[in-house]
Amino acid sequence: MFTKKQLLTKGLLSVAPHMFSVIPFGIVCGAIGIELGFSPVLVYAMSIIIFGGASQIVFLQLLSGGASALIAVTSVGVINSRHLLYGAVLSEYLEKLSFIKKLLISYLVVDQGFAESNKFFQKNKNEPYLHYHLLGSGGTLWICWQLATLSGIILGSFVPEELGLKFAVPLTFIAIVVQDLKKLDHVIVMITCGLSSLLFFDAPFKSYIIISPIIALFVAALVLRLKK
Amino acid sequence: MTWFSIIIAGIITYFTRMTMVALVDRDLLGERVKAVLAYVPSAVFPAIIFPGIFINDYGTFIEMNDPKIFGAIVAILVGYFSRNVIATIISGLFSYWIIIFLL
Question: Which of A34, B1, B29, B77 lies 20 to 30 angstroms, CA to CA, from A178?
Fold first, then answer.
């Protein structure tokens, strides 16, 4: 059995390697906001209020491109709707928490934290303080995201665009799923999702980001049925 | 108006995080649904990976000789054999930079 402190540390360490992607992306995110002409306070406030990398960039790009606030807000909602799936997975491990604690810890559910904590949860289902792992992973990502976007806001146009730092984003997610390439069922689900995302990329409100997981999960259900 | 939109977007985003954790009773989900949910990482992350590689900033498909494809292949190979997140990210970025800056 792990103590709360051990779980917190494990959570922190599990996402630490992802900083090689989260920090460059956060810097780019802050810099883009400034480049698009928004005020530094506003760009930074998004990191606290929304706290969702890609959706923050899309929101500002849409507004600066002349889109209506309704379209910008809807797009943020659609992009972040994938958290519903993370929540559904995590709920199994968080169900014993009090309602207030559930409300608080939800704020920290983000892609990499979900991915790494979920991997840990699957192997340690019976630990009593599992949520401390999520607190460690999500809390670390939160702090680094704040610092990174702040740095981007300060550096602004000094961030060289030629570096293509946004490319760190797909790489961090490759690192998360790459070991599942050993399993044929997962490979089928991944390819379904990836190809769907390219096929539906031009669907309104960036909805490819939730349409393709839904298609992929249907395929996963089919695969499960065939496996029986 | 922009501030108001950000706050609404923030509330919606928070609800996407909170709803399934705090408001939905886990017992409502049957065993089959739970089995399917085990595929969530594999079903979600490729929707971030594929467009991040194959579609450029202007929303169009990249050429087949784009350095990002090379970087991604290197990252997949390094990640698969090293099982190391840092090595995966760094190898992908550096192989990408080597192509764009040296060739």
Answer: B29
